Amino acid sequence: MNSLHDTLHRVTQRVIENSRDSRARYLELIKREAENQPDRGQVSCSNLAHAYAGAEEDQKALMAHRGPNIGIVSAYNDMLSAHQPYGRYPERLKIYAREVGATAQVAGATPAMCDGVTQGETGMELSLFSRDVIALSTGIALSHAMYDGALMLGICDKIVPGLLIGALRYGHVPTIFVPSGPMPSGISNKQKQATRQLYAEGKATRAELLASELGSYHSPGTCTFYGTANSNQMMMEMMGLHIPGAAFIQPGTKLRQALDREAVHRVAAIGIDGNDYRPIGHCVDEKAIINAAVGLLATGGSTNHAIHIPAMARAAGVQFDWNDLSELSSAVPLLAHVYPNGAGDVNHFHDAGGMGYVIGELLDAGLAHRDVLTVCESDLGLYAQEPGLDEDALAWREVGPSGDDTMLRPASDPFRPDGGMKLVEGNLGRACFKTSAVSEERYTIEAPCRVFDRQEDVSAAFKAGELDQDIVVVVRFQGPRANGMPELHSLTPPLAVLQDRGYKVALVTDGRMSGASGKVPAAIHCTPEALGGGPLSKLQTGDVVKLCAKTGTLSTSADLDSRTAMPDPVSDDGFGRELFAMFRTHADGAEQGGSSMLAQAGL
């Protein structure tokens, strides 16, 4: 077994020490909950009748209390292509449960919004807080105390973090995450990006743009670019919460069905009454959180997880912040080039060796914790293999060398020596800079800024030719408390056009950008946010702003201390935003996870 890299060991020990009290409280909570959960056979007959009335052919088995009962929490809807395959999952999962003498019931459903649909639209202001709603919905689903194990059906952006946060508050329950896999590859990502930029310049029609987008997002399954959804799947592998290798197997295949079957059989085997009890609250510990962050850095994953990882960690009593993420990034090499960092998508990534290859390289380099409690009988070592079918039986095999060194490289010869996630800070606050998608000559941008309070105004200024210069575009009042921290991905095409015209361009914002943030230098998730008097609220158009990934700088030469903050804008109502006023009011900062629920729970 290879020794741990010094940086990994140091950061892990710091996280363990910082989490000592909160983790101890969490473990005591789930121990108490396990002891207090009633045996179903002792619950009131009236209660049980309500729980069993709709169980149809499983009713007799439930009444006899013959085996474990598995709760299914589903984020199904058929508006999300990634979640459309889940429509028929419950009936299949129930059949798989019966094969091992277990039963399964749909415990509850959660909302599942698509950031791709709401991108640049009003609905995006509900997106981040949908994670809290999903966690709350998961908590309600599991509150019935009828389940010996749980299966989480979810893939996309806020959905997996929300499911995990909710599941962790029932940490005594063994839980496995069940993905459904990516759609087949469509048109090339390079072609899609070119059409987007042509449209931004007015050189492509809306019909041409729509045809291009449909050529990429064309069937059931997860979108194939390496954004937040696919980064979620990567993290579930790194944390040992999937059946090994399940992340990127396409829907409707025999291998996909075999992996789904194994998830059901496995969760039935790791229940509290068995000999291999593996509660999710023990699986997700400090080392598992570190593994998730390492995987994010090694694969160039979504910057949204700079917000989600701290939030998920808090739910398990673990304290993890951007200092930890940035220090890990200094030591974790970039092993993958998946679009938007490279040309190929997640299908190409999987075909080249995928997560099995990445995990194997990280373990061999001492850059991941092998000794985590996974949902399988093995430690993380099994996740360094790839699944396949031996006739009809599920089996794992060695991955071997990379099948495409333009997509995957060994830790000894990476695409770059660091993980491409840099903490930048200064008198404008703290923010994240994803360097892995940005050319090194653009790591430092120093230019006059143009300040905007709405992303729509940036597009208008671009179309009017007002941004044709070296410029730092500042978009403020986009934080959790201001308007729910919408993702500003729609700004990428016009800023990329300016950059292609030869200007030095950067973005600074207290809003979000995802793994699809692209090639423009950006300081994102800036905290403290502008609302309430954060530094960005004192910035004025024309102030010189410096953003430097090399020195970790985010600053202005302007004397902010001598200025009065801009008045906080009034939050817009309509489109359901008023229903989330409480979430905005009580949200904490981006570095803590941007959650009102966790803040109010004192976690």
TrEMBL record:
Residues reported to bind [4Fe-4S] cluster: 156, 223
Keyword Iron in record: yes
Pfam families to which the protein is assigned, alphabetical: ILV_EDD_C, ILVD_EDD_N
Record carries keyword 4Fe-4S: yes
Pathway(s) where this gene product acts: Carbohydrate metabolism; Entner-Doudoroff pathway
Cellular-component GO terms for this entry: cytosol
Signal sequence range: none
Any GO BP: D-gluconate metabolic process
Enzyme Commission number(s): 4.2.1.12
Membership in a protein family: Belongs to the IlvD/Edd family.
Role this protein plays: Catalyzes the dehydration of 6-phospho-D-gluconate to 2-dehydro-3-deoxy-6-phospho-D-gluconate.
Annotated protein name in UniProt: Phosphogluconate dehydratase
Gene that this sequence comes from: edd
